[in-house]
């Protein structure tokens, strides 16, 4: 994130990612500090419908891939160029195609 800021890049996180990344050992103060430097993108009706369309187009099921689809949808509507850090290269490749530069964590 420091590198992105230094380069003048905006760092965006999907609101659902916050839920996905939270567990009992999450350092709440550190998470709050980290999120304070990001733009948090909400998921409303329009975004959910677009994410559902991505699932239909790729043949993936919402029960397993709902958050991935919401994150991919958010990435696809950002101004270009877009890079996404992900631990799930395979699924994000299916959802984003070649329109987002994927960087595996």
What are the key terms here?
105 residues, alpha/beta, Rossmann fold, two-stranded parallel ribbon, two-stranded parallel sheet, 6 helices, 13% strand
Offer a concise description of the structure.
With 105 residues, the chain is of the alpha/beta class. It has six helices and four strands. The strands form two sheets. The protein has a two-stranded parallel ribbon. It has a two-stranded parallel ribbon with strand order 3-4.
Description of the molecule:
It is a single chain. With 105 residues, this protein is α/β, with parallel strands linked by helices. It has a single domain (2-104), classed as Rossmann fold. The protein is built from six helices and four strands, in the order H-E-H-H-E-H-H-E-H-E. It has helices at 2-6, 15-20, 28-36, 45-58, 62-76, 89-96; strands at residues 12-14, 39-41, 83-86, 101-104. The strands form two sheets. It has a two-stranded parallel ribbon with strand order 1-2. A two-stranded parallel ribbon has the order 3-4. Strand 3 (83-86), helix 6 and strand 4 form a beta-alpha-beta unit. The mean pLDDT is 94.
Strand order across the largest sheet? 1-2
Weakly predicted, low-confidence segments: none
What is the architecture at the second tier of CATH? Answer: 3-Layer(aba) Sandwich
Overall number of domains: 1
What's the overall average pLDDT, rounded? 94
| CATH topology name | Rossmann fold
Shape category: globular
Q: Could you give the order of the helices and strands?
A: HEHHEHHEHE
Count the strands? Answer: 4
Quaternary structure: single chain
**Main sheet properties:** 2 strands, parallel
Structural class: alpha/beta
Estimated helix fraction: 40-55%
Total number of helical segments? 6
Give the N-to-C terminal Cα separation: 13 Å
For the record, the CATH class is Alpha Beta
The Rg value, from CA coordinates, equals 14 Å
Strand portion:
5-15%
Question: Can you tell me the CATH superfamily?
Answer: 5'-nuclease
């Amino acid at each position: 994130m420091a590198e992105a800021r230094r380069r003048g890049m905006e760092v965006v996180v999907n609101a659902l990612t916050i839920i996905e990344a939270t567990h009992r050992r999450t350092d709440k103060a550190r998470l709050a500090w980290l999120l304070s430097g990001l733009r948090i993108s909400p998921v409303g009706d329009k975004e959910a419908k677009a994410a559902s369309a991505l699932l239909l187009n790729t043949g993936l099921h919402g029960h397993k891939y709902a958050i991935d689809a919401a994150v991919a949808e958010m990435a696809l509507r950002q101004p270009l160029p877009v890079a996404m850090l992900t631990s799930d290269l395979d699924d994000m490749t299916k959802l984003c195609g070649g329109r987002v530069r994927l960087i595996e964590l």
